[in-house]
UniProtKB/TrEMBL annotation:
One of its GO terms (biological process) is acyl-CoA metabolic process. Belongs to the acyl coenzyme A hydrolase family. This is HotDog ACOT-type domain-containing protein. The lineage of its organism: Eukaryota, Metazoa, Ecdysozoa, Arthropoda, Hexapoda. It comes from Homalodisca liturata. One of its GO terms (cellular component) is mitochondrion. InterPro entries: HotDog_dom_sf.
Length: 130
């Protein structure tokens, strides 16, 4: 795993972390109809990180007439866990290198606030009344 850098870990030892999917935040499809005879491309970015959480955005595209056409995109919330999956594992901070990356981080922060707001009203977080 190249994206979790542990300075105490020897370079030739595999990362002892496990990345798990916590939730699928959003999936969207376009009107583009993919062709069975053409290759597809899967791309993605890490759009935000917390202490042990990772938000990833992925999309699927197919080339048509020399242009890549988006088929679908999705946003996943992942979590880094320690080797025996008994606790969280810290992930490296994400630093925006340019204005485009700053926008990606800002959009991810809006989604994070929305998730927290929606989570606060969830019946799954309340003890049922007797």
């Amino acid at each position: 795993m190249n994206y979790i850098k542990n300075p105490k870990q020897p370079p030739d030892v595999p990362t002892p972390y496990v990345i798990v999917t916590v939730l699928v935040d959003q999936i969207s499809f376009t009107d583009f109809v993919p062709k069975a005879q053409a290759d597809i491309r899967l791309s993605g970015i890490v759009s935000s990180v917390g202490r042990s959480s990772i938000e990833t955005t992925v999309w699927l595209e197919q080339q048509q007439h020399g242009q890549w056409q988006k088929i679908t995109s999705a946003i996943f919330l992942m979590a880094a866990r320690n080797a025996n999956i008994s606790g969280s594992a810290p992930v490296n901070k994400l630093v925006a290198a340019d204005d485009e990356e700053k926008l990606i981080l800002a959009e991810a922060e809006v989604r994070k606030k929305r998730r927290h707001f929606e989570d606060s009203g969830s019946v799954l977080n309340k003890v049922p009344a007797p």
